[in-house]
Amino acid sequence: MPQLNQLPDIWWSQLFWLAVVFGIIFFVIGRGMVPKIQSTVDARDRKIADDLERAQAARVAADQTEQAWRERMDAARAEAARVASEAKQASARDTEAKVKKAADKLHLKVEASEQKIREAVQSARSEIEGVAASLTQDLVSRLTGIKVDTEDAADAVKAQLNV
């Protein structure tokens, strides 16, 4: 084979060019491009780390803000409950005062009505006693022919009505 026969003649030449090409590749890629790529990767890593730190700080700030908001909302709810309770109590006092005032008015009206009824009953009783006394005098005189005094007839009627 002729290709293998020339191998010892060109061996050193091929090794030289192989070393030259690998040297060029090493210096161009290894010394020129790799540091630029490495600096880009390092910058990206630093940016990611900084972003993560800022995100963590933002999360802590958001948690603190949320906690402060919750505390304000709890305080506002407690204040609203207190105000509502005070309003209920004031309304209850107002209602109680109005009911008491109305009850007092009704009580006065009832007392006045009861007094009128008592007066009407007393007046009716007086009239009944008067009519009964007069009727008693008339009946006794018609039935027995005895003339009864007005005071005696009134006393007899009162005695019978009070029994």
Would you count the extended β strands for me?
Answer: 0
* Average pLDDT level: 90
Strand content: under 5%
Question: If helices are DSSP runs of H or I spanning 4 or more residues, what is the number of helices?
Answer: 3
- The domain count comes to 1
First-residue to last-residue Cα separation: 166 Å
| Main sheet overview | none
Q: What percentage of residues falls in helices of 4 or more residues?
A: over 70%
Explain briefly what this protein structure is.
It is built from three helices and no strands. By secondary structure, the protein is an all-alpha fold. The protein starts with a helix and ends with a helix.
Give a structural overview.
The protein is an all-alpha fold and 163 residues long. The chain has one domain (13-161). It contains three helices and no strands. The chain has helices at residues 2-5, 7-143, 150-161. α2 packs antiparallel against α3 (150-161). The model has no long low-confidence stretch (mean pLDDT 90).
